[in-house]
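TICKET #2291
ISSUE: user wants both folds in one file
ATTACHMENT 1:
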Amino acid sequence: MKVVAVRGLRVLLVLLALAFCGYSVASQWDAAVDAFRQMSWATLAGALAAGLAGLFVWMLGWREFLAGLGSPLPVRAVFRISGISQLGKYVPGKVWALVTQIEMTREHKVPPERSFGSTMLAVATSTSCGLAVAAVTLPLTSAAARREYWYLFLLAPVLLAMLHPRIVSWALGVMLRLVRRPPLEHPVSLGATLRAVGWTVLGWALFGLHTWLLCAAVGGDGKGLPFLATGAYALAFVAGFLVFIAPGGIGSPGGGADGRADAGAPGGRAGRGRDRVPGAADRRRPADRGRGVPAGQDGPGTRE
């Protein structure tokens, strides 16, 4: 009976995700069609490859945490679990991906507390590393970002330091006690944490490449564009993650990077989030911003 319920949950999750994806595309149909017309198939293929590669290495980061907590899984199993469960980020409320992931890892005899702990560690790592990436790249390309987000950039090293195994082990222990679950058998090692951080940073670089290809295809230019694209995407992801009610792919401050990145098309949020990140907005002339011209087009440092 429980197996049938889990399978039913997967089907429902996929259907809901497809419904919200369809709504997201339909609500921005004209803009999407216009953007596709400006891009070559080679650019789209390259951006898609970079985005999928970013998702894959992020999955490897989660796998490192899972193994570090005592439940190593083969890449194929982790790929299947991650691919299906992360569709839940298209559904309102961010708990669906976590619930589905915990239930699917049960099939591989992974205790719920380990699945929960590894997921929390992966989320904390992606958020901390994303803020660090934005702190390194955006101040180099945007005076507005330095002025408006300086406090977030200062927070980046603090969050990275909090990934130390002693700190995260204490935090996970508190959370497990609150939900009345048994504690973890042993903390994740520093080596596993550093490997996961490495995979996560590589993922951010690939997502930056993905966003840069799309920005360049619609008119973005300038030596600082790769840094701007990477930093804007990372900052949009962190901002969007803070919105709990909206689905990850719809309506959050950064657009849809969280949902679309975990579902296989991470450029969604970066594409819309550019207009909300000061570093990207600076690339447009005031008159262009008033007309709604996308960031990276017809502004200083861009092609006419």
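ATTACHMENT 2:
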Amino acid sequence: MAGKKPSRRTIDCCSLIHNTCKQDISFHNQKLTYSIHDKIFAEHTFSPPITIEKQTSMPWTFIFPVGSFNINEEFSNGILKIEGEIQ
């Protein structure tokens, strides 16, 4: 996971989403966290307008808005986690 050093407004987390399921999936009110060594640096609930077809991968950038992260921390080599079930 590549996390850019935070600007004044956002953190951009570029990811590659793999759907290994036998059905299409979409995100709706999914809480995502960005952590490094189990310490959460950012979290936000997302509803991107995407559907990932079964057995495919798709690049996506999740943009954490101001207020959802600690701007005084360095963000690199972290892990982006999806909390709960994907629909």
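RESOLUTION: both attachments delivered.
EXTRA DETAIL ON ATTACHMENT 2: The chain is about 0% helix and 55% strand.
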